[in-house]
Amino acid sequence: MSDAPASTPSTLQKLLAELIGTFILVFGVIGTALYSAGFGGGEGNLNVGFLGVALALGLSVLVSAYAFGAISGGHFNPAVSVGLAVAGRFAWRELPGYVGAQVVGGVLAAAALLGILSGGPLFEALAFRSVSTGWDALSPAGFGLGSFLLVETIATAVFVFVILGVTSARAAAGFAPLAIGLTLTAIALVAIPVSNASFNPARSIATAVFGGGEALGQLWGSIVAPIAGAAIAALVYRAVFERPARIVGAANPEVEVAA
Prior knowledge:
MIP_CS; mainly alpha; Glycerol uptake facilitator protein; two-stranded antiparallel ribbon; MIP; globular; transmembrane
């Protein structure tokens, strides 16, 4: 075997990894919500319910992180990218490219799901409205704006806290994707009835694009709340658990702590 060090991923490789990883995330979780969680119960019908959707979210992120984490850092979420930048784990100059790739990957996945849906008996013009994130009429259990903002902000903060913890220099190597995926499953079980569980502006943009005017009108909340939660978590984590640090590589979430 060769002992030559692995080459540093190029910018294009990082962006493609983020695009594909976000595609897998949206395809997995929204596809499950559309095709497997909307059927009535009974013999011959599949209904995985909220638990199935939450597991699909966690598993989609888990496999994407293992597949592409070594290339791009495995963000697949603009809020995560912002949180890592605030925490000093990611270069701000790379943020626009990452966010663009994530949004494109999500929209492509939603378009693919819509194409599949159009050939089946469940197709309707606003099928994506039911899987778009929001409050009042868009909330599965009818929660209002305040509840929506709270759950999306708090859940994203918890998610980013876990990411920062399991990718720190103190954490055990190799387990980060597993912890991140399981965390997403847990917080999704809390948030799905309230907000349809986004924690991810790219995922929310992807469904709102095909979800109609109401979904687009409420999209701002699915952008503001996750980014606010991620920034809060990053600031608190950096102040409490880390000394001043400098970035050692955009694709590497580890930091070099000053003596």
